[in-house]
Write a structure and sequence with these properties.
Blueprint (H helix, E strand, L loop, with lengths): L7 H7 L2 H17 L5 E5 L2 E6 L16 E8 L4 E5 H5 L1 H14 L10 E4 L7 H8 L4 H14 L1
Helix pairs in contact: 2-5
Length: 152
């Protein structure tokens, strides 16, 4: 689902009521554990966490006026989706997450390149998400991002 939101609070207020508390918990988990330097806002129609222009003035190479995206989440029709650029770009983080997931959830991992889909919204492994958030600083993400751009 696409929401026209101006803030994370606005976004959460627009989703179905039965999802609001889960999204509030997920948001707080991310905010409590993401390293200092990332900022929160609405990016690409989702609640996003990004490297602000004050830390990385170049912004996102596709749209430099946008800050460098890192992590986001969205309420979709059949799931809540979490997007994490480190899972996509850093094989060690991907391997760690895939290995750890079964310790926190009895359900099969439903994951794309950077997208983790949670169809059982009341079963999101918040502790695992908290640990995932600590895996990369803004500076580390900038380095990974710039190295990936050099390879293109």
């Amino acid at each position: 689902m696409q929401y026209k939101a101006s803030s994370p609070e606005d976004y959460i207020s627009q989703v179905p009521e039965e999802r609001q508390n889960v999204l509030k918990t997920l948001r707080q988990t991310i905010k409590d554990n993401l390293p200092e330097g990332f900022e929160e806002g609405i990016q690409y129609g989702m609640i996003g966490y990004y490297v602000p222009h004050s830390l990385y003035p170049k912004g996102y190479h596709c749209t430099p006026e946008e800050p460098l995206p890192f992590m986001s989440f969205a309420s979709q029709k059949n799931s809540i989706n979490l997007y994490h650029s480190g899972i996509y770009a850093v094989p060690e983080i991907h391997e760690w997450f895939v290995k750890e997931y079964p310790k926190y959830s009895k359900y099969k991992l439903d994951m794309g390149k950077s997208c983790i889909r949670f169809k059982r919204i009341n079963e999101i492994p918040m502790q695992l998400i908290a640990e995932l958030c600590t895996k990369m600083t803004p500076e580390a993400w900038i380095s990974v991002y710039e190295n990936a751009l050099k390879k293109k």
